[in-house]
From TrEMBL:
GO molecular-function terms, A-Z: metal ion binding; nicotinamidase activity
Designated gene of the protein: pncA
Similarity remark: Belongs to the isochorismatase family.
Pathway terms, separated by semicolons: Cofactor biosynthesis; nicotinate biosynthesis; nicotinate from nicotinamide: step 1/1
One Pfam family in the UniProt entry: Isochorismatase
Taxonomy, superkingdom: Bacteria
Organism, scientific name: Trinickia violacea
Domain Isochorismatase-like: 7-200
Lineage: Bacteria, Pseudomonadati, Pseudomonadota, Betaproteobacteria, Burkholderiales
Signal peptide: none
GO process annotations (BP): pyridine nucleotide biosynthetic process
Residue intervals passing through the bilayer: none
EC number of this enzyme: 3.5.1.19
Protein name, entry field: Nicotinamidase
Length: 208
């Protein structure tokens, strides 16, 4: 068992990111057994859920004539436009049913503001609005954050980078993640994470 100063952050393991879902991540379901095994090694586990209102600014349908996976400029910066996904309270927004982490006590729901996206579990995409997660983790005495889930190059990477900015030691567990990989986004994300001093580990490394 990991010591109480370490947390496993399980990012967006939700139906809409699974094969057949609204914003399917290739092989997304394969992270579930790996994460279940990892979670048994952590006292502290925090889950996140992408949790958008119908009118959410990241949905391409609200920006005609733009199409999903195009990028546009918004007041807070560049935004990739996505298919409608993870709408609050829908089956697509639910966590994968085989996720087996009964001892996880906190679920952070993010992306709930209509006009701001939030890939990160710490900071919304305007770079200033906080979710409260950093304070929660500090309050528990956490110093080391292990990230896994979906998708490596969006919500996992942004969460890991913001965890570093918040002063935590950070690792991403490669085989407990899957990527969207849009126009080289996966390589870019790993490069940014490497430059930020984020470790890239396997589940076996973490559980060893
Ligand atoms: C995500 C795109 C849009 C993710 C969420 O979980 O990586 N990606 N919303
Ligand atoms: Zn989203």
């Amino acid at each position: 068992m990991k010591s109480a100063d370490q947390v496993l952050l399980v990012v967006d393991v939700q139906n809409d990111f699974m094969p057949g879902g609204a914003l399917a991540v290739t092989d997304g379901h394969q992270v579930v057994p790996v994460i279940n095994r990892l979670a048994k090694g952590f006292e502290h586990v925090v889950l996140t859920q992408d949790w958008h209102p119908h009118e959410h600014i990241s949905f391409a349908v609200h920006h005609p004539p733009h199409r999903p996976f195009e990028t546009i400029a918004l007041p807070y910066g560049q935004q990739v436009l996505w298919p409608v996904h993870c709408v609050q309270g829908t089956p697509g927004a639910a966590l994968h049913r085989d996720l087996d982490i009964a001892h996880a006590r906190l679920v952070i729901r993010k992306g709930h503001h209509r006009d701001i996206d939030s890939y990160s579990a710490f900071l919304e995409a305007d770079g200033t609005t906080r979710t409260g997660l950093a304070g929660y983790l500090r309050d528990l005495g956490v110093t080391r954050v292990f990230c896994c889930g979906l998708a490596t190059d969006y919500c996992v990477a942004w969460t890991a980078l913001d965890a570093r900015l918040a002063g935590f030691e950070v690792a991403v567990i490669d085989d407990a993640c899957r990527a969207i990989d849009l126009d080289g986004s996966l390589d870019k994300a790993w490069q940014a994470m490497r430059e930020a001093g984020i470790a890239r580990l396997s589940a076996d490394d973490v559980l060893a």
